[in-house]
Amino acid sequence: MQTFTLCRGWVLSLFLTLWGCAFTSHAEAGVVQSVILQGRVLDEQGEPVVGATVVIGDTKKATSTDMDGRYSISNLPLGNHTITVKMMGLSNSSQTVRLVAGENVLNFTMSNGMDALEEVVVIGYGVAKKKQVTGSIASVTPEEFNKGVVGSPDQLLAGKVAGLTVNRSGGDPTAGATIQLRGPSSLTASSAPLYVIDGVVGANIELVAPDDIVSMDVMKDASSTAIYGSRAANGVIFVTTKRGKAGAPVLSYSGYAATERVANRVNVLNASEHKMFVEEHGLAVAGSETGYDTDWQKEITRTGFSHNHNLSMTGGSEGTRYNASVNYFNNQGIVKRNGIERIIARAGIDQSAFDNRLKLAFNMANSINNSDHVDYGIFNGAARYLPTSPIMSDGAEYVQYGGYFQVPGRTNYMNPVAMLNQRDETRSNNTLLGNFKADLTILDGLVWSNVLSYQRTHYDKKYYMHRTDFDSKALGRGYGDRTNLKHIDKILETYLNYNLTRGQHTVDAMAGYSYQRTKNNDGMWASSVGFMSDDLGSNNLNLGTLPEGYNPFTDSPATLESLLISFYGRLGYSFNEKYLLSASLRKDGSSKFGVNNRWATFPSVSAAWRLTKEAFMENQTLFSELKIRAGYGVSGNQNIDPYRQIVIFGPQNGQFLYNGKWMNAYGVNQNANPDLKWETTSMFNVGLDFELWKGRLGGSVEYYNKETKDLLYEYDVPSPPYQFNRLLANGATMSNKGVEIVLNARVVSNSNFSYNTTVNFARNINEVGSLTSNIENIGVSQRYEGGIGLEGWTGQTAAIVLPGQALGTFYVAKYVGYDEVAKRTIYQKPSGELVTQDQISAPDDYQIMGHALPKFTYGWNNNLRYKNWDLNIFFRGMYGNQVFNATRADLSRLQQANVTNISKDAVKEGVFETPLIASSRFIEDGSFLRLDNATLGYRFAVAGHKYFKQARIYATGQNLFVLTDYTGVDPEVGLGGLAPGIDNRNYYPRTRSFSLGVNLTF
Q1: Which domain does 44 fall in, by range?
Q2: What are the E-state strand segments in 750-813?
Q3: d(CA 39, CA 830)
Q4: How many CB atoms lie under 10 A from the CB of residue 84?
């Protein structure tokens, strides 16, 4: 793995400089008399409020409470002052006091009366109190985040938000997650949500360390997301990071160390079991492949070690506030030669001027991400390779393979240890983001905001196959390739926010303009073969000796540039915080689409009625909040590459003779489509928010109907008249309908013990509509997806995209059983006729036999506290989904046990006919309940300590157990794409981890 070149001295200098600034900014000159204000801040239960901000209203002085709820401010002027205490989730508390020389004591009690209603959530180009929200927005705070080894912020949300599916298939630390909000809604374009990080639209989520996040707000319905127009059909996730606070400097450290092991293995025969099986059934194994006891899965895996360290500092005065942090994360994969190392440095400064009428903010973040990758073919190899074969061999015939034992002539059969050690792949991402924001209060209630951001990513990939690699592509000559790309994103946002309150009437309005220019894949890709040595790998491709006609630049990525210009606005009205109305409109123009469809408009409207504000609800004591809301909006999806609307020429598969030399042939690789446009999603959402018994029980119930039209889809077209046989066009449709329920309860709450629990449930029904395009006579009635690729399964698929059915519909032969006398498997045709597998014609005799998407998902979070101890237990799961277990199919070749290993499940099943077709025999129930993580912590009493404001240690276990009937490695397989739910042999094992961590504040 590459080492970081980021200078440690730079980081140290940054912190020393900020420390100097902090102490300088708090130095007071000319203080004649010493005036000290101190006290304690408690909640209604008498518990200390940690981290509350104490502000001296008519000065620029402020501080924060420590772990015992205590605060102290010195060098204050004499006289009357209004002191205000602020804390998210609690009502502000203010008192007026006359300060005298010497020590002054003032204590506060903060009320829970507002519960979560006064909390602020981020909305498009602004913020709003929860009680004012008319759309569907879910907020997740650090206390609710998933604990343990977390490689990316999106993993913090897994199972926490109803309707949001965060699916990280397997335990590869270098792999990302598939994220879907309220079901899949695209056939071709990406389904990833839009991230907005500290107001920067489309910022890279890798720029944020989990420890730096203050909150994540998920906008789920189109009435909330339409303000982001053509990029918001998959939802919007706002990420808010830590900012500087007025007060004394606060230095925080958090870190953990963890071990990870394989949670479950492929259940294949070991050497003794395999030897017994082949002997019992009269199978002969080649002499070179016997006599050894090799656990191939063990040979490629290890106990992984991970550690994470986050150091941050905040502070400043009321006029100038600063924040800085540095995060180091090292996650060693449970597969050898696999892992990720990342460092993130962030710094920001906020400056107020002209009596707070001008607010300036500057932020800089840099992420350096280095990773080592492995070929996923090793997992299938580790399962299939005979356990009686050796890893290495001294035979002369194996010298060409580097001494690794190999079996020439056998299809898809390669020594997995050799594959692991003879292929090198490293990747590096260096992402820099700088953004500047200026807020100018022109008039009371009228604020003009301007945001400038610049994001740049350098991507470098090196791949090399050794000269001894068994693959014919590299054997005897080696193969190397190198990809080096740069991506740049520039954004300008300028908008006005106006808020006016007159009596019981409140009006807020926003109008703005956005300009975004993106340039991706600016770089090159090259390859070479014919290396004399493996020492330099792909670092110097010129050392290769290219055979005649070899093109080292085949399929080099094209530089992709796009421009998005937008005009947008929002208008809101509130009467006595009882009747709420909001409407927005955005007009987007994108260069990604055809000349006939560059512009589109995205409207939304939503309303809410807070019944608890009505006169007829005044005397009741059951509901502390009851709100009905409804909304409708339209958003879009433009997550495709630029230039898909124009003719593109590229190299063809042939060559031609010109002036005595063979030249590469070029031709049309893509047809033009001047009518190409973005996908459009309209959504109706109705919800009920409630709180009972002063917030002791609360939650929400929602129903949505999500319709997507003009889906982008690649169609087969005749050539001629088209120059190429494929065309990207709009026209298909899809729908998602569902219900989401969230319940949270404060079961017990007193000074010694508390127990809070939250349950979320989501039911989504997906359905594909028409597959006909908006171009005359172009369309399909159905499409087969999910190629399996097993030996002897040429061209077979396991899924179908069919109108009236959901994505992930399994379309295979119906398996009836096994005839032990005839030694044949029996299937049923759609007509009802019983046949053997050689009489099945794929896919004509296939049937719908299951669905990959779950009927519902759920999560259950539990927080318990006893004095200084805290315990969090989180379960999540899916129900009603099926998995096509291609791994089991591949390991069910009992008649071929002399040349490939088999599973214990196949031996138990006892079917002695090699499976050669995709059938329901291998479709299994994928429902599961997982104890996702459990954390036990202890908070030390540090009140009055000279250095510590907070000290806590904790232990976390992740993926502690799974309850499922699935026989494979793990039921949580990939849910993205047109053929989700297929366990196709190359599954990176999910891990079980145990970590020990500490949180310190100085």
Answers
A1: 35-110
A2: 753-768, 783-787, 797-801, 809-812
A3: 79
A4: 15
pLDDT in tens, 538-561: 888 888 887 766 666 555 567 889
- Answer whether residue 707 is part of any domain: no
Output the pLDDT for position 6: 41
Do 696 and 617 touch, CB atoms closer than 8 A? no
| Residue-wise DSSP of 266-298 | --B--HHHHHHHHHHTT----GGG-S----HHH
Alpha-carbon gap, residue 534 to 367, rounded angstroms: 31
User: Tokens in use for 252?
Assistant: 């925080």
> Average pLDDT for residues 314-337, to the nearest whole number?
93
CA distance 38 to 55: 12
Q: Tell me the CA end-to-end span of the chain in Å, nearest whole number.
A: 34
Q: Is residue 902 part of a domain?
A: no
pLDDT at 753 over 60: yes
Measured CA to CA, the distance from residue 76 to residue 56 in angstroms comes to: 9
User: What pTM was estimated for this model as a whole?
Assistant: 0.87
What CATH code is carried by the domain that includes residue 49? Answer: 2.60.40.1120
Give the DSSP H/E element, type plus range, for residue 359.
strand 358-373
Residue 70 lies in a domain: yes
Q: Please report the sign of the dihedral spanned by the C-alpha atoms of residue 524, residue 528, residue 532, residue 535.
A: positive
Which DSSP category does 64 fall into?
A: E
More confident residue, 608 or 558: 608
Rounded distance, CA 146 to CA 153, Å?
Answer: 10
pLDDT per residue as tens digits for the range 400-433: 999 999 999 888 899 999 999 999 999 999 999 9
Say what the pLDDT of residue 83 is: 87
Q: Choose between 655 and 933: higher pLDDT.
A: 933
Amino acid at 845: D
The total number of structural domains in the chain stands at 1
Residues 366, 344 contacting (CB under 8 angstroms)? yes
Residue 50 in domain: yes
Which is nearest to 931 in space by CA: 962, 900, 970, 972?
962
